[in-house]
Specification:
Chain lengths: 196, 196
DNA sequence: ACCTGAACACCGTTCAAGT
DNA sequence: ACCTGAACACCGTTCAAGT
């Protein structure tokens, strides 16, 4: 039986855990610092000893999201030839968004105004981006395509999967059965490798 | 000199105008019904005679946004051959997002939970989508490409431009001069027609 | 038919004070 | 070093009352 000591002891991780739960339930805008504090059993102002404010807590959640996305992309890396790997990378990106829509929105949305203020978040985001870039560049190399600006194909592939993920989680693509939706995702994520 | 009569007379349009101004300044989450009421010179609760709540007001703003986007797409329709028109349509879509980022986010974001609750908004959204679909289908026809599910290429093209627009306005594509950014937009929006 | 005023249940954040 | 309590300036929304 915890006797509610004056000092929590590990409040920071407790706040993050509670906030992550609230995030998937209600989204970042409805997530409140006060409710996260209540879940951890501390006063409304206790979080300010561990986070500069709400945005800093959200940035910490986003960093965890980017790390999770990076792991998901790493899992499908080098599971086939370069074209198959690129397709699987795109599919994993979309699957991540569908599995954790609120976290995905937070990671890329405007709640965190400037990632450079939160180095941990910025670094984690760059880690995920580097996996995408690597898959695109490996694919281009395998097809002996030489480009002067590798950023263009990387952003093209990223736009394709990011756009599909966004449209899906924001319910812009409706009136489809689960089966048709899956084929659609395969077709769109495969477009970059199958060509126009 | 208006003598602040008890009845405003045209409060609904006045609220929409004020809210649209606030939207581009601070974004939908920070836009408050109370501030829009203050701008119109009425009490905090007056908006409830004209809108069911904040979401209904946002939905009305989003409907205007979709109408504006539709006009922008119509302006570039049939300005060249089918491939050029499709490319211009994509470019116009991204340009709209860059010109009105907060409105774009509102139109496609989670603030409006279910467009079918707001028929005006749903209809306006479908109008814009139909312009995109038309451009894609005209392009496919011009290249004599026959597909059984025209939705797949339509969603592919949409994902590409929607993803690029989202990444740009959410500041995910950084460290670029204006010139390189413009070339990037041209390359990505052109990818669907130039092929992989 | 349209608008106001007071009230309720919330927020994020600050600051002096407590252990 | 970490946490609390009271306070400030906000929200969205409801409801009885005013014109």
């Amino acid at each position: 039986m915890a006797k509610k000591p004056y000092h929590h002891g590990s409040l920071r991780p407790a706040l993050l855990a509670g906030a992550m739960e609230l995030l998937e339930q209600k989204g970042a805008p409805s997530l409140s610092l006060r409710e996260a504090a209540r879940m951890a059993g501390v006063s409304q102002t206790a979080p300010y000893r561990h986070f500069a404010g709400k945005e800093a807590l959200l940035a910490a959640l986003a960093a965890r999201g980017f790390e999770e996305l990076t792991r998901a992309l790493d899992e499908v890396a080098a599971t086939g030839n370069a074209a198959e790997t690129l397709h699987a990378t795109g599919r994993a990106y979309v699957d991540f968004a569908l599995a954790r829509p609120q976290l995905f929105r937070l990671m890329f949305g405007p709640e965190i105004r400037d990632k450079s203020v939160f180095p941990e978040t910025l670094e984690a985001a760059q880690g995920a981006y580097s996996r995408l870039t690597a898959a695109v560049e490996a694919y281009l190399a395998s097809r002996r395509i030489h480009v002067k600006t590798p950023r263009v194909p990387a952003v093209t592939a990223w736009s394709l999967v990011h756009g599909l993920a966004s449209l899906l989680i924001d319910n812009q693509i409706t009136d489809m059965e689960e089966d048709g939706k899956n084929r659609l995702i395969d077709a769109v994520t495969g477009f970059f490798v199958t060509g126009g």
